[in-house]
């Protein structure tokens, strides 16, 4: 790694997140180690690209929006030895830099994929229950998803085949392949996500809908078939795997 090459490339999946993106960028700017910040934007019609550029991020424009393609292209453009994938509506814990530094120095770091603990805000009893279920699923079934982030060494990312160009289920597809060759481990810190995903339908109804999407995909429905059932706005940051 050259003197100017970043050790960690942060890849942020983004579409029309002008309200939330500045908060994540502020978290990232507190880093105590070199970061390359790439915003993979699916064609935002708000100020998301301008906000990213003003914060020193590099904007990669991918249109039409496709979650898997956005992530795959940005990963190919990234220069770091480590890749940290995040959603634009995420917030990092204040101590995230120290934890990641310790992790990168550990002997087992490069051989595993690393994820955060899901935290949904604002809190409710139903959301806290969902978080606990996600924790069990992530640890014992080895199925953390995109809103939990993913920190992975480039070599391991390439070894498992990276993100496929899927409009939905791109994170489930990746962790299924990744879990066949290594362990996915907790970083031990929360990653806060915006609770608006569950506001309209409620936690139970949305979770059921998303489980049905996952079930249909596992039974052979293509991600493209599932994606066509929703408008571009609904797909933009819907989290269907929950």
Commentary on this structure:
This protein is an alpha/beta fold. It has one domain (about 10-235): Spore Coat Polysaccharide Biosynthesis Protein SpsA, Chain A, CATH 3.90.550. About 40% of the residues lie in helices and about 20% in strands. The chain is built from 11 helices and 8 strands. The strands form 2 sheets. It has a 5-stranded mixed β-sheet, sandwiched between helices. A 3-stranded mixed β-sheet has the order 5-8-6. It starts with 7 loop residues before the first strand and ends in a 6-residue tail after the last helix.
**Helix content range:** 40-55%
Quote the CATH topology. Answer: Spore Coat Polysaccharide Biosynthesis Protein SpsA, Chain A
Structure summary, number of beta strands: 8
Query: What structural class do you assign from the helix and strand content?
Result: alpha/beta
Major β-sheet profile: 5 strands, mixed
SS summary, helix count = 11
CATH H-tier superfamily: Spore Coat Polysaccharide Biosynthesis Protein SpsA, Chain A
Strand order within the widest beta sheet: 3-2-1-4-7
Would you list the SSEs in sequence order as H and E?
EHEHEHEEHEHEHHEHHHH
Radius of gyration: 17 Å
- CATH structural architecture: Alpha-Beta Complex
**The CATH C-level class name:** Alpha Beta
In whole angstroms, the N-to-C terminal distance is 37 Å
Mean pLDDT score, rounded?
90
* Shape by Cα distribution: globular
* Unreliably modeled segments: 235-242
């Amino acid at each position: 790694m050259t003197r100017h090459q970043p050790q960690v490339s942060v890849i942020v999946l983004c579409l029309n997140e002008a309200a939330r993106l500045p908060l994540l960028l502020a978290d990232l700017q507190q880093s105590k180690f070199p970061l390359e910040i790439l915003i993979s934007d699916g064609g935002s019609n708000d100020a998301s690209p301008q906000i990213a550029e003003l914060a020193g991020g590099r904007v990669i424009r991918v249109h039409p929006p496709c979650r898997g393609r956005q992530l795959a292209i940005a990963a190919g453009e990234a220069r770091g030895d480590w890749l940290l994938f995040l959603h634009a509506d995420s917030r990092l814990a204040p101590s995230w830099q120290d934890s990641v530094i310790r992790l990168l120095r550990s002997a087992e770091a490069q051989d595993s994929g690393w994820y955060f603990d899901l935290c949904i805000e604002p809190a409710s009893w139903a959301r806290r229950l969902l978080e606990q279920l996600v924790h069990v699923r992530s640890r014992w079934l080895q199925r953390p998803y995109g809103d939990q982030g993913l920190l992975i060494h480039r070599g391991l990312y390439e070894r498992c085949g990276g993100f496929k160009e899927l409009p939905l289920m791109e994170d489930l597809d990746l962790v299924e392949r990744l879990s066949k060759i290594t362990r996915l481990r907790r970083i031990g810190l929360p990653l806060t996500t915006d609770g608006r995903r569950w506001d309209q339908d409620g936690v139970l109804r949305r979770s059921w809908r998303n489980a049905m999407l996952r079930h249909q995909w596992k039974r052979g429905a293509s991600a493209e078939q599932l994606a066509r059932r929703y408008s571009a706005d609904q797909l933009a940051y819907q989290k269907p795997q929950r």
